[in-house]
Automatic annotation (TrEMBL):
<feature type="transmembrane region" description="Helical">
    <location>
        <begin position="204"/>
        <end position="225"/>
    </location>
</feature>
<keyword id="KW-0675">Receptor</keyword>
<dbReference type="GO" id="GO:0005886">
    <property type="term" value="C:plasma membrane"/>
</dbReference>
<feature type="transmembrane region" description="Helical">
    <location>
        <begin position="277"/>
        <end position="295"/>
    </location>
</feature>
<dbReference type="InterPro" id="IPR017452">
    <property type="entry name" value="GPCR_Rhodpsn_7TM"/>
</dbReference>
<keyword id="KW-0716">Sensory transduction</keyword>
<feature type="transmembrane region" description="Helical">
    <location>
        <begin position="140"/>
        <end position="162"/>
    </location>
</feature>
<protein>
    <recommendedName>
        <fullName>Olfactory receptor</fullName>
    </recommendedName>
</protein>
<feature type="domain" description="G-protein coupled receptors family 1 profile">
    <location>
        <begin position="40"/>
        <end position="292"/>
    </location>
</feature>
<keyword id="KW-0812">Transmembrane</keyword>
<dbReference type="InterPro" id="IPR000276">
    <property type="entry name" value="GPCR_Rhodpsn"/>
</dbReference>
<keyword id="KW-1133">Transmembrane helix</keyword>
<feature type="transmembrane region" description="Helical">
    <location>
        <begin position="102"/>
        <end position="119"/>
    </location>
</feature>
<comment type="similarity">
    <text>Belongs to the G-protein coupled receptor 1 family.</text>
</comment>
<feature type="transmembrane region" description="Helical">
    <location>
        <begin position="22"/>
        <end position="46"/>
    </location>
</feature>
<keyword id="KW-1003">Cell membrane</keyword>
<feature type="transmembrane region" description="Helical">
    <location>
        <begin position="237"/>
        <end position="257"/>
    </location>
</feature>
Length: 328
């Protein structure tokens, strides 16, 4: 492949079997998905900024997850919306690789954030007396910044490796965005070594944190079972079950998509692979604000207080409601 015409741009195809009459409907769906993700997670960020009572380690990691979800949706969805709204799926060569890097970056970052969240809950429940000194705001902020930095390493290696490879054939990406699996089929040389390296990196950054998450939740369950029966036990179990559901949605479909190419006689159609990828990538960012925030007592109280202020009532210390008279 010494004499080849370098591809200057790529084209996002999206769902290859989707009929044109459904393009606008799909565009509206992804637009609604993006707005819901951005507004829901931005509301959490604004609330954290305005309410000093939320300046605690647990909420710091929640805000980190919210910012990561906004970042992923912003990188992945606008071009997909443009592809179905205006039939504009073209991406410049380097723009595509930038998108690929950021897609895998936010995927890695979310895995590390979930690890940090599990660590925080593990210390809070299993070591309640030592938790205030072990996990301070400064410690959590440092862990968060470390996650945002180190998450670039493995995606960066894969991105640089693929950028240096020759693309001399078709430029249509049968996917919703640029990623390693869709780009490797467009390279005009053997990519088995590069793809194996990318796959190993992905498995490491995803499933080493998952191993600790599983270990931490086992320890949490054991600690909760030792508690006296009561509302505290049920609340802890409810929180763990909710987070376990999100973790399962994040990890299990992703693993299935990654290992399919390595299992003989097991294939996924492009449409099913794209739909599965979109599900595990975009469903958690949409519901995370509702699960992690609306189920949190402190945040629900803040919402209630904000709504009461807008209606012209103020809560008293004893929970009574007092009308606020407005004078000119």
């Amino acid at each position: 492949c010494s004499n080849y015409t370098r591809v200057s741009e790529f084209v996002i195809v999206g769902f290859p079997s989707l009929q044109p009459e459904y393009f606008v409907l799909v565009a509206w769906f992804f637009f609604f998905l993006y707005v819901t993700t951005a507004v829901g997670n931005l509301l959490l960020v604004v609330m954290f900024t305005l309410e000093r009572s939320l300046h605690e380690p647990m909420y710091i990691v929640m805000v980190s997850l919210a910012l990561s979800d906004i970042g992923f949706a912003t990188v992945a969805l606008p071009k997909l919306i443009a592809r179905y709204w205006w039939n504009d799926g073209s991406l410049g060569f380097h723009t595509c690789f930038f998108q690929m890097h950021m897609i895998h970056y936010f995927g890695s970052l979310n895995s590390l954030i979930l690890l940090t969240m599990a660590l925080d809950r593990y210390l809070a429940i299993c070591f309640p007396l030592r938790y205030p000194t072990m996990m301070t705001n400064q410690t959590m902020a440092g862990l968060t910044l470390f996650c945002w930095g180190i998450a670039h390493i493995f995606p960066g290696i894969s991105t640089i490796s693929f950028t240096l490879m020759p693309f001399c054939g078709p430029n249509k990406i049968i996917h919703a965005f640029c990623d390693t699996m869709s780009l490797k089929s467009l390279v005009c040389v053997d990519t088995s070594r590069q793809y194996s390296l990318a796959f190993a990196s992905a498995m490491f950054i995803l499933y080493v944190p998952l191993a600790f998450i599983i270990f931490s939740y086992i320890c949490i369950v054991i600690s909760v079972l030792r508690m006296a029966k009561g509302q505290g036990r049920m609340k802890t179990f409810s929180t763990c079950a909710t987070q376990g559901c999100i973790i399962s949605i994040y990890y299990i479909p992703r693993f299935f998509v990654y290992v399919t190419p390595f299992i003989p006689n097991l294939t996924m159609t492009p449409d099913k692979r794209i739909a599965t990828t979109i599900f595990y990538s975009l469903f958690p960012p949409v519901i995370n604000p509702f699960i992690y925030c609306l189920r949190t007592k402190e945040i629900k109280q803040i919402f209630r207080r904000w709504l009461q202020k807008r209606k012209g009532v103020m809560p008293t210390k004893h929970g009574q409601i007092v009308a606020v008279t407005m004078s000119n």
